[in-house]
Amino acid sequence: MNPVAHKEAGSRAEIAREALRECRLCPRHCGVDRTAGDTGYCRLDAGLRVYREVLYWGEEKELNPSHQVYFAGCNLRCEFCAVGEWNEEPQEEPKSDIEEIINAIERRKKEGARYLNLLGGEPAVNVCGIIELLGRLDVTTKVVWNSNMYYNTIVDELMAGLMDVCLADFKCGNNVCASRLLDSADYVEVVKENILRATRHSDVIVRCLVLPGHIDCCAVPILEWLAEEAGGAKVSLRGNYVPPAESKEAPLGYLSPSEFEKTQNLAKKLGLNLIQ
Amino acid sequence: MRKKRYKRKCGDFEVRVLADGRVVMLAPDEELLQVAGTLDPDNELLPPVKEKKKNAGK
């Protein structure tokens, strides 16, 4: 973390808490008072709920092992979400004790964690509690912001300097697919803007989960945009899509080797900075 | 009537065995990752197998 940003964590958390009084952290613009217990699209009040923490070797190589801290609640509704249970009904999880989270982070550091990896759900909708948490940690803690990137500018402003690596998901390359698969009709513009903002203060890894049957409509435009606009970002192609047990919109099969190869070849042809 | 989807809890294991022999573990928690690491000890994306403590007793 940047020492100046770390020193500001207390004041930034206050700003974040104030923002929760009429929450417009993300483009859903719910405007509810989460500090009063009201909930909007993400179904979260102001409480912080960690539903899992684990030392993990399955991230991009340069991040392993990472200490994954999963926050309940999300502002997208991905049809293929593998942890939808905790995101659709986040308040079924008990509120977390910040001291317990800090103890877990210290324990995982001793076990070899190179990064504290904040994910969910979506960390952006938990940004207030996350900043309070980061302010209590040693400034040398390396932080990964593992996000769907679907949030308003205020989140980027609050988190600038508090993350070392922005691990940015980019799933759909057009808003028709995003509307069907993620329940977001303005997804592409918002994500692009936030990726570009993140490159101004952090190392950025754009993680593209290649969706079966969505190569030409999603993977191709994403990769072409990255080549044209976000040349400094590293790109991680993921071929490990897992279909949901049931869905009206999401692909119900696994990615074929030829689809993944086609995507990889395009990324190489475009000169993207591919990492594994 | 549609049944409500089962909500996984930490400690639950959800595993799919695909027709081509691949084993897919969904949203693995620490215990499931340890199982995966034991099944595939050379996979660097999985946690190293924890060595069992030797019995110090006689």
> Strand portion of chain B, in percent?
5-15%
Order of helices and strands of chain A: HHEEHHEHEHEHHEHEHE
Fraction in helix of chain A? 25-40%
Mean pLDDT reading of chain B: 77
Q: How would you describe this structure to a colleague?
A:
- The complex is a heterodimer of chains A (276) and B (58).
- Chain A is α/β, with parallel strands linked by helices.
- Chain A starts with a helix and ends with a strand.
- Chain A is built from 10 helices and 8 strands.
- Helix content of chain A is 36%, strand content 16%.
- Chain A has helices at 3-7, 9-19, 84-88, 98-110, 127-136, 153-159, 175-182, 187-198, 215-229, 257-269, and strands at residues 50-56, 66-71, 115-119, 143-147, 165-169, 203-209, 234-238, 273-275.
- Chain B is of the alpha+beta class and 58 residues long.
- The mean pLDDT of chain B is 77.
- Classes of the chains: A alpha/beta (276), B alpha+beta (58).
- The interface between A and B is medium-sized, with 17 and 16 residues.
Topology of this protein?
The complex is a heterodimer of chains A (276) and B (58).
Chain A: H1 3-7, H2 9-19, E1 50-56, E2 66-71, H3 84-88, H4 98-110, E3 115-119, H5 127-136, E4 143-147, H6 153-159, E5 165-169, H7 175-182, H8 187-198, E6 203-209, H9 215-229, E7 234-238, H10 257-269, E8 273-275
Parallel strand pairs in A: 2-3, 3-4, 4-5, 5-6, 6-7, 7-8
Antiparallel strand pairs in A: 1-2
Helix pairs in contact in A: 2-5, 9-10
Chain B: E1 15-17, E2 23-25, H1 30-39
Antiparallel strand pairs in B: 1-2
